[in-house]
């Protein structure tokens, strides 16, 4: 079995995130594998997985910023807000100008309330929303706060009776790029959906360190848990006495910024735990030794 750490996969189209987890379990020789944020089958790109005790990092990694490249198709709406769904309506786009598109996309930037796509993995009364839609139910999800830090428009081009718009997005976890396409299309009065989606980064892990499953089959590359923790969280290097306290879960006399968990390390560089400030002392969020 491989050492605990993170595996950064460049997911191929057509695979579910669970398909990738199953493949990595076989390659790693352990069932203790999980992922930090689902990618739809249509989507490609960065999928971060944890192996062994590094799976406990994943819930914290899901709070990090993500980046995507996408193509929005204006002029048609679908049941899934992407190209895998059935077309529900079409509209002419000859009255939609490039400046109109840019202006509507600009309204998506910042702290916004976004209604997730109905075929998301969000649970409604214990059942995934996409499963309810598949069973013929009408699903209406509540708007949730998300942050879109940057949205860049790269190209706009007419494709038959439709208009394709290539964009790049940096956003908080929990943002649905499909919902951006849906909402911008609705605002322009023509409908919209995604035809392509590629996740280019999850936190500090981007396509430069990602490997396809075929590449991992030849050379199973794991980011060691200590390296992953130092890259993903603010780091604090402890002395021996503090490290001994961490190993038994004691609070530390530190003054950490209160905005995020901090990764704490022993003098030899071993990753010990995630700590956060609670009152006058720092306390353990999760201990990894």
Automatic annotation (TrEMBL):
EC number of this enzyme: 5.4.99.25
Residues annotated as domain tRNA pseudouridine synthase II TruB subfamily 2 C-terminal: 233-288
Domain of life: Bacteria
Keywords from the UniProt entry: Isomerase, tRNA processing
Class of the enzyme per the UniProt entry, highest EC level: isomerase
Catalytically driven reaction(s): uridine(55) in tRNA = pseudouridine(55) in tRNA
Functional summary from the UniProt entry: Responsible for synthesis of pseudouridine from uracil-55 in the psi GC loop of transfer RNAs.
Membership in a protein family: Belongs to the pseudouridine synthase TruB family. Type 1 subfamily.
Protein name stated in the entry: tRNA pseudouridine synthase B
Taxonomic source organism: Nocardioides furvisabuli
Gene transcribed to yield this protein: truB
């Amino acid at each position: 079995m491989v050492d605990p750490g993170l595996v950064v996969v460049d997911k191929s189209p057509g695979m579910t995130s669970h398909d990738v987890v199953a493949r990595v379990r076989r390659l790693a020789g352990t069932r203790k594998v999980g992922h930090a944020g689902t990618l739809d089958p249509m989507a490609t790109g960065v999928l971060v997985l944890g192996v062994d005790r590094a799976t406990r990092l994943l819930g914290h990694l899901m709070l990090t910023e993500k980046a995507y490249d996408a193509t929005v198709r204006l002029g048609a709406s679908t049941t899934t807000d992407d190209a895998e769904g059935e077309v529900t309506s079409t509209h002419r786009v000859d009255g939609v100008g490039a400046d109109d598109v840019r202006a509507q996309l600009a309204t998506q930037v910042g702290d916004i309330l976004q209604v997730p796509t109905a075929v998301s993995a969000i649970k409604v009364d214990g059942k995934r929303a996409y499963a309810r839609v598949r069973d013929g139910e009408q699903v209406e999800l509540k708007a949730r706060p998300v942050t879109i830090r940057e949205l860049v428009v790269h190209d706009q081009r007419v494709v038959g009776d439709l208009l394709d718009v290539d964009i790049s997005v940096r956003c908080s976890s929990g943002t649905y790029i499909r919902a951006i396409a849906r909402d911008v299309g609705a605002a322009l009065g023509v409908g919209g959906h995604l035809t392509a989606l590629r996740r280019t980064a999850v936190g500090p892990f981007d396509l430069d360190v990602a490997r396809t499953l075929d590449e991992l089959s030849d050379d199973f590359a794991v980011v060691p848990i200590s390296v992953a923790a130092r890259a993903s969280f603010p780091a604090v290097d402890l002395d021996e006495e503090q490290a001994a306290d961490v190993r038994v879960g004691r609070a530390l006399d530190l003054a950490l910024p209160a905005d995020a968990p901090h990764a704490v390390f022993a003098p030899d560089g071993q990753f010990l735990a995630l700590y956060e400030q609670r009152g006058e002392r720092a306390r353990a969020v999760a201990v990894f030794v």
